[in-house]
Amino acid sequence: MELNTLWFWIIAALFVGYFVLDGFDFGVGMSLPFLGRDDVDRRVLINTIGPVWDLNETWVIVAGAALFAAFPEWYATMFSGFYLALLLILLALIARGVSFEYRHQRPGAEWKRGFDRMIVAGSAIPALLWGVAFANVVRGVPLDAGFNYTGTFFDLLNPYALLGGLTTLLLFFTHGVVFVSLKTEGDIRRRARLLAVRSGVATIVVAATFLAWTVLAYGSPATGILAALAAVALVAAFIANLREAEGWAFGLMAATIALAVLTLFASLFPDVMPASNDPANSLTIANASSTPYTLEVMSWTALFAMPVILLYQGWTYWILRKRLSRKTIEAAVH
After folding, report:
1. Where are the membrane-spanning stretches (predicted)?
2. Do 226 and 266 contact (CB within 8 A), yes or no?
3. pLDDT (tens digit per residue) in 161-181
């Protein structure tokens, strides 16, 4: 396998890690209005991701850095063309992070409600816009001969991309609600399972439609297999949730998101940014990649660094595996 091909799939794996891990953070944040009946409930929800949300978020930093180093032309075209959408994502992530840190600084109810709204918006906006962005990458955007994006922000809001955004929004929401049922006990656990059933039905319909559209319009037999596996995993997660097997439901939701992301990357390959106006202007893994020496150095670095990162993150989740409840939060106040 050539190094540019290897790094295409490494970047795909990094985005898989980001969407699986920060995806349930987004879902938990979006669930506050549905599961947080009072401040104690909302504190339980926030505490399920409190120790890990910032660690999960670093995956997008690593993915962006790898994209910049391995495929600078792809990075430049996407980050300039999608500038406004990516800026909105960045501002939403900042607002969410600030809210986690400042929400508990004052006891006032209005103070907390304001930051709760920022958590919901800071979770929903990236969950929607990441899907819009990646769907546009798969669909293709207008590029000139210098690989510059020639469209507008509103060109990105086409039906296929908006469906992609709705798909990621629902996938992350359901993923987060299942995570809440896995990490809590008592009434909030029961309500999270019921909410996952309701959102799961909508997620299955929307995600199946988006994956079918992707395969029929932009896919290949390989992407068809990946999309089919994603659909099977999603339905299996829904059934596991019905049977109150939260661990299986969460694992299968993670598999669904992973397979859906891989479906998008497989639909791209060997392009990295197709040109919708002229195929000759498309960015590919060949004309967008760095020099072989750069990719070689990156490969050796990743070989030693990635196992350490994965072991550390796995250890973190193992240490923080205990379930939370209202009693846990109420006891911490005294």
Report:
1. 6-32, 74-98, 119-140, 160-182, 194-216, 222-242, 249-269, 297-320
2. yes
3. 999 999 999 999 999 999 999
